[in-house]
Design brief:
The chain is mainly α and 686 residues long. The strands form five sheets. Strands 1-2 form a two-stranded antiparallel sheet. The chain has a two-stranded antiparallel ribbon with strand order 3-10. The chain contains 32 helices and ten strands. The protein has a domain of 197 residues. The radius of gyration is 29 Å and the shape is globular. The two termini are 55 Å apart. Keywords: Heme, Iron, Metal-binding. This is Cytochrome c domain-containing protein. InterPro entries: Cyt_c-like_dom, Cyt_c-like_dom_sf, DUF1585, DUF1587, DUF1588, DUF1592, DUF1595.
Amino acid sequence: MRLPRALVLGVGLTTLGLVGAALVRVSNPLDAVIDDPAARPPYDPDVDSDDPEADLPRAAFATHVAPFLARYCVSCHSVEWAEGGVVLAFLDEVAAVAVPATWEKVSAAVRSGRMPPPGRPRPEPTEADALIAWSDRAATGNWSGRGDPGRVTLRRLNRSEYDNTIRDLVGVTVRPAADFPADDTGDGFDTNADVLSVSPILVEKYLAAAEAVVGEAANNADVWRRLTNPPAEDFVPFVLRGSPPQRADAVKGQRVELGDDAAVARAAEIDRAYYALQAFADRAFRRPVTHAEVGRLMRFVETSLANGDGFDAGFKLAVTAVLVSPHFLFRVELDPPAGPDADRRLTGFELATRLSYFLWSSMPDEALYRLAAGGKLGDARTLAGQVRRMLRDPKSRALAGNFAGQWLQTRALTEATRDPVHFPGFDADLRRAMQQETELFFDHVVREDAPVLDLLTGEYTFVNDRLARHYSLRGVSGSQFRRVSLAGTGRAGVLTHASVLTVTSGPTRTSPVKRGKWVLENVLGTPPPAAPPGVDGLTGSGLGRATTLREQLDRHRSRAECTGCHARIDPIGFGLENFDAIGAWRDHDGNAPVDATGLLPDGRTFRGPAELRAVLAEKPAAFVRCLVEKLLTYALGRSLRAADRAAVDRITRHAIRSEFKFSSLVVALVRSDPFQKRRVTEGSAP
């Protein structure tokens, strides 16, 4: 028997209207800043957490903010001068808090070190911390310290998550999502729920993929046997349903006469199908399914048996229906009717799902399901233990390919081209080796629980013979990657990986602008604004006698509309000019010696990539905070807002106090309010 495709699709999509109510956006509170880790006593990173009220600098406008503005700001930001259109000459606190957008700018400028500008007196760290804390509160109006965890839009699985989930759920290794339309990205990540739309063609692809997956499973005897006869331990939510589980209504209604072998056999098949579908749907929907949901799936089996088409035909249709259900294709977090509380804590199954798709880009495993069913994931030490277990698991390599590949933009290597005249050695093998180096390096930091600062300063990497030749490293042979020391080579951390240096260059030359912008966005977390309309790049026209790239950019930067941003961008990019457009070391650009000196916005200077890296590492909190922002954006699947700043700061502080260990950073992240809670009432927050 073959039921119409529309019927299968209809059963799978029948609940779309129910889950559609979960479409929403998010935000989170802000109330803390990074303080001096040396002033804090050691603590247990698994169970201790930052208390916002205890850590918050008690900044007051009269005693902290007004003196800061008078000492460092008003000379340029008075009513008469209003540099950059910002006025900071406030008469009292009432006038100050009336302009929250101004304090958003102030917080960002002081936090990044852009303000006060070079040549002006610099505030002490405690002064800056107090101003930032007060500015953050003024920017959001959050004076009470009570957080807003925000709401995450109902989000479908992206292509990577779909393939990984099929692998772990069904047990087949096909990758059907390769035929899906490409996922859009938001804030640099394809986990952003607001851009993961569903087109008519994707719905058709979902049904075709489900049929292909079921066909592949049915052709594998071991896989099919497990799906149709799951072991007892697959009944994950047994603690919720009681023991033994309820029997199917269809089974309870059977009249089985003694000696009627056909009736007995049919009842046994229905019984087996019910519990097999229940076990499969439990895992596919990532929560305990209801008996009504299983009953709808059982219609396929019952109809198939009644028509004489057999058990397998009906079971295939039922499994196909599960794989096109919104409860499988979307990560659903349905809220109860809004009550007196504005937010709620996620259920154990919702938390397990967020955790597994964050660290594995796939569904929860048996251990997570059982802890969720038993209500134990809310225990701090249990959750920390699961995080560390999951990071050690090979499935955490998804973080390297999916998170790091997008954060560091090395996914773009697949489309990078180079002029074969200028770079004849840039081929497919080198491109693959570049990408694999960065993924292996990031995966090493994750699975070995190395300090996250290794991403910036680690003097080691992973190469094969092809990449070793590119780096002029000796003693490496064969295609297998192995760890090597970079001491004395001028390289360290991802900043000097050929993958990063290549995607931030052009087809024929390096781009200090792209590289400087990349560092500001992905290392310092202070991205520059977009170029003003009508401003052209370096086209070669109007450059006069400029010969070197630095001279060309100096001429470009002399334009009034370009000066401000390029003063921040270009010096950092020039610090990496010892690496050519495919990341090979060079001392000359053509006939001219490379000039890799620079001046940062906060007045610090450097010469060459090693000194640039050392200058960036002098303020590790900036890099760690940027990494936290990127990880939280990726994990939540939504844009961060001003109200998330407090959570970002607390996670950053936790990582600093925990010696920058990657696992401690992740533990703090998954214990944060934005990750563990969601706002029930609708509406937007700052």
